Amino acid sequence: MPEEINRLLTDQLCDLLFTPSADADENLLREGIEAKKIHRVGNVMIDTLVRLLPRAEQHRPSDISSPYLLVTLHRPSNVDDLSWLRDLFLILVQMSRELTVVFPVHPRTRQRLQALGSFPPASDRLRLLEPLPYLEFLALQRYAALVITDSGGIQEETTFLGVPCLTVRENTERPITVDLGTNQLVGRDLGKLRDAAQVRLGGQAAAEMSERLMRTAYRFGTDVQPSALLLSLHSRANDKGKGCVEIRAGRWRRS
Fold this sequence. Notes:
The chain is of the alpha/beta class. It folds into 2 domains: 71 residues, no CATH class; 168 residues, Glycogen Phosphorylase B (Rossmann fold, 3-Layer(aba) Sandwich). It is built from 12 helices and 11 strands. It has a 6-stranded parallel sheet, with helices on both faces. The longest helix has 15 residues. The C terminus is likely disordered.
């Protein structure tokens, strides 16, 4: 991924690197980063989610009831392929016969859908929404039966929330979500996406998956130490008065 190349370059320039987990520490050490520059402070994005989750409850859309499937797509490698995008929506239409599909549409994705003309077919169960504010979207994530996405941050948020996630990408910079079993990379294989969704949504397999998610989710991202982050920054500022700092999200994983 292009952004991963940027991360690797930034690693070499930074004086302080704040990481969320042990695997991120290990990756930086393999890159040749000095151990004294690495500070594990936990997942600050999940810290934000925890703080705002009670407020998100007040922003849950009243006209969307569970169960529903939540979808987000915005990456050019996905939405710029109009043939693939059309086939994906045909699958979403099929899924909407079983449960409501809620899709807040990114501006780039909406533009590509407009290029397809009258597609996708109109459906009361396939709801195409405008982009949502964070609190409303967080509330939708919390109560979704399943999330389909190509977003890195949503992979982490669904893991903490205990919501199964299917990632429509060949790789991920959040491999801990795959290791915990909450997130599955399905690539751009739409048949694999459809089959994985059926497994995650149906029968005994889904019940077992839900129980495992609840056992693992709340171990993810809960060791945040914002005080350690601030103390490191304060110490660095007093020491040199300048420098480059990076907060590291994770590491790269190919499916």
